[in-house]
């Protein structure tokens, strides 16, 4: 092996390392004397400014830690997109005292908005969840992947899913779009809101990495790897979009597997880490 080949091999040894590192910053933002951190990175911060905080949710339950500086405004519009129908907001300060919350009319089953009275110089916890999130009753979800070039037709699938009122959310294993551009990802989200009555929680696929190593995906959608629970069931979405699983993600997955050792655990990724056929790049 020549020097150039050795250097190339070393440079490609962890092709998804940068994405794994960037994942740790998803759900964090700071502006207008307000610091926001979504626990577990389970939402992307779409807007923070002019008295508005908007998130794109990637889980049925979100907890957001909000720290308001002394100069922060008190009245904020808090919007969560891609959330569960029937989700409610509970806002408390560090002592557990409830903050004033005003629900606003729903624009769509998966879009919720509230007016929240924050306290300058204090920290608040905002929790968004459906009322039955911690029950142990059976539920159903849909599994989907590989929309890619069929983006203009995906509404047909949502229409079929809408016919089943027992479905709570869609669990998506990557390739939302063909090239992962901003325009395509925004179109995916617009079509989802226009046609689906339930949210969609996703990991990326190799097609999302075609544009800037999925940076736009992480900005608009959220983490490539994440974990959440709903009604006692654990769900893990794992980034294998580069035909491998980065050691940082493997470490996370080990923790999630241990956490769910005695529970039902659903794990999804786009490309299997070990491909017995050998037709994918990392097989």
Automatic annotation (TrEMBL):
SUPFAM superfamilies: Metallo-dependent phosphatases. This is Metallophosphoesterase. Residues 139-274 form the Calcineurin-like phosphoesterase domain. Transmembrane segments: none annotated. GO terms for molecular function: hydrolase activity. InterPro entries: Calcineurin-like_PHP, Metallo-depent_PP-like. It comes from Corallococcus sicarius. It holds the Pfam family Metallophos. CDD domains: MPP_superfamily. It comes from the Bacteria.
């Amino acid at each position: 092996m020549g020097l150039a080949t050795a250097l190339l091999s070393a440079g490609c040894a962890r092709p998804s390392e940068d994405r794994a590192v960037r994942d740790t910053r998803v759900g964090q933002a700071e502006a207008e004397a307000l610091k926001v951190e979504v626990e577990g990175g389970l939402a992307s911060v779409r807007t923070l400014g002019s008295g508005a905080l908007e998130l794109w949710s990637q889980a049925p339950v979100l907890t957001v830690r909000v720290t308001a500086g002394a100069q922060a405004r008190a009245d904020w519009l808090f919007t969560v997109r891609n959330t569960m129908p029937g989700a409610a907001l509970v806002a408390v300060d560090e002592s557990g005292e409830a903050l004033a919350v005003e629900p606003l009319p729903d624009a769509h089953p998966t879009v919720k908005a509230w007016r929240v009275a924050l306290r300058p110089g204090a920290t608040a916890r905002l929790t968004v969840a459906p009322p039955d999130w911690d029950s142990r009753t059976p539920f159903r979800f849909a599994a989907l992947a590989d929309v890619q070039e069929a983006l203009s037709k995906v509404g047909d699938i949502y229409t079929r899913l809408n016919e089943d009122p027992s479905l709570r959310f869609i669990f998506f294993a990557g390739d939302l779009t063909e090239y992962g551009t901003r325009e395509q990802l925004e179109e995916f989200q617009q079509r989802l809101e226009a046609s689906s009555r339930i949210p969609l929680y996703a990991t990326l696929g190799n097609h999302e990495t075609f544009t800037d190593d999925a940076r736009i995906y992480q900005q608009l959608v959220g983490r490539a790897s994440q974990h959440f629970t709903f009604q006692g069931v654990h769900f893990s979405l794992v980034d294998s979009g580069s035909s491998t699983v980065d050691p940082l993600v493997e470490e996370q997955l080990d923790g999630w597997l241990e956490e769910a050792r005695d529970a039902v655990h659903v794990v999804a990724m786009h490309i299997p880490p070990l491909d017995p056929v050998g037709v994918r790049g990392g097989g």
